[in-house]
Structure formats: structure tokens, C-alpha cells
Design goal:
The complex is a heterodimer of chains A (about 110) and B (about 110). By secondary structure, chain A is mainly β. Chain A has no helices and eleven strands. Classes of the chains: A mainly beta (about 110), B mainly beta (about 110).
């Protein structure tokens, strides 16, 4: 079983739609959680950190459920520019190392 | 501000050849990382360096060596390339800001081993 699991998609949605991704992690000792965005053939970039209380950044909302060990990302009012792969990332003990999921691909169409 | 730079961007090697991938960061970060990314496998950590002068193995270190030349530079060497090492290689760096743990990535090196 992979330590971080994501539905690879693709999720095909029209512009303006709301879409949600989930991610599950297996290590109950995981301490920090993130969503990274990766455009085709580009490097990953941090989209947002995920806090226990949940957090929102514009059209993006991230939630953490420690009891069920899953993280979610909600994107409202999808834009064409949101088309990318979204990587779920966790940090375990020791702050240096991150564990990356394989990513969920989102395609937003006109 | 260049961030994290990697050279080369593309490389084709024959089986058995050697090469070194170069990485440099100008953000004064302590930690640096090498990952490989393969379809369906996600990013996997090859080696990392928590600080200048130290290196440690990650998830998939076999077939690779690293050198943390100074605080800015962290190189990855393939001594005898194999087709299984065909991949996209990303270098990343991270500062000591424990409030974010954000890793900054370079643009990647696309390596093909024939």
C-alpha cells in the first residue's frame, strides 16, 4: 500500500464547476500536509498547506481529517488555468522529508 | 532571483555511460533534495542533504551518488547509467522555516538512457 494515495483521475469539469479531490495517508504520525500543483512537464509548486482547522485561499479550500487520515482539496469556480496535476504531500517525523502522492489530474474545459 | 537551477535540461545517455546532474540554489537554504519522477510512481526521493556536509539516502538511492559541494550546490551522479534510470529528475531545496516546510523545485532534467 502506498503511503499517500490519490485518485489519478483525470477529473474533467467545465469552467465554473466545483471539484473536490481526496487523498488518504497511511502513517498516523504524519505531522504536516500540503497540496502542490504541477503543470505539464513543469516542476511542482506549493499550492497550500493544510491545517487541522482547515484553510481557504481564494477559490481553494483544504481540509484535514486526522481521525480518518484523509486530506481534501476543493476548487470552486474552476478556471481553465486550474488544469494541472494536484499532488498530495505529507511530512512525517523529521522536518526534512516529504512524501508525495502520485497526483490527481484536473482538466477544465470551456 | 533564480531560485533553484538545474543543468542540463535534457540528456540522452547510452547504457553504461556516466554523468553528473548539477543543482544550485540561491535562497540560502540548508536542505537540498534529489527526486525522480516516473509515470504512475510520483516523486520519489533519491538522496537528500539536511545541511552542508551531510547526505543521506532516500527511498531509491541505488545506482546514484551525491555530493553537497557547498551550501548552494548539490550534484547527483550516475556512475553507470541503466535504462531503468530513464526519468525526470528534480532538485529541490528547503529552508529552516518550520512554519511552512515548503520545498522549492528546479525545472527538472529529462534523462533518457538507451
Amino acid at each position: 500500500r502506498k503511503e499517500v494515495e490519490q485518485d489519478p483521475g483525470p477529473f474533467n469539469v467545465p469552467e465554473g464547476a466545483t471539484v473536490a479531490f481526496n487523498c488518504t495517508y497511511s502513517n498516523s504520525a504524519s505531522q504536516s500536509f500540503f497540496w502542490y500543483r504541477q503543470d505539464c512537464r513543469k516542476e511542482p509548486k506549493l499550492l497550500m498547506s493544510v491545517y487541522s482547522s482547515g484553510n481557504e485561499d481564494g477559490r481553494f479550500t483544504a481540509q484535514l481529517n486526522r481521525a480518518s487520515q484523509y486530506i481534501s482539496l476543493l476548487i470552486r469556480d474552476s478556471k481553465l488555468s486550474d488544469s494541472a496535476t494536484y499532488l498530495c504531500v505529507v511530512r512525517n517525523t523529521g522536518f526534512q522529508k516529504l512524501v508525495f502522492g502520485t497526483g490527481t489530474r484536473l482538466l477544465v474545459s470551456p | 532571483n533564480a531560485g533553484v537551477t538545474q543543468t542540463p535540461k535534457f540528456q540522452v545517455l547510452k547504457t553504461g555511460q556516466s554523468m553528473t546532474l548539477q543543482c544550485a540554489q540561491d535562497m540560502n537554504h540548508n536542505s537540498m533534495y534529489w527526486y525522480r519522477q516516473d509515470p504512475g510512481m510520483g516523486l520519489r526521493l533519491i538522496y537528500y542533504s539536511a545541511s552542508e556536509g551531510t547526505t543521506d539516502k532516500g527511498e531509491v538511492p541505488n545506482g546514484y551518488n551525491v555530493s553537497r559541494l557547498n551550501k548552494r550546490e548539490f550534484s547527483l551522479r550516475l556512475e553507470s547509467a541503466a535504462p531503468s534510470q530513464t526519468s525526470v529528475y528534480f532538485c529541490a531545496s528547503q529552508g529552516l522555516d518550520r512554519s511552512s516546510y515548503e520545498q522549492y523545485f528546479g525545472p527538472g532534467t529529462r534523462l533518457t538512457v538507451t
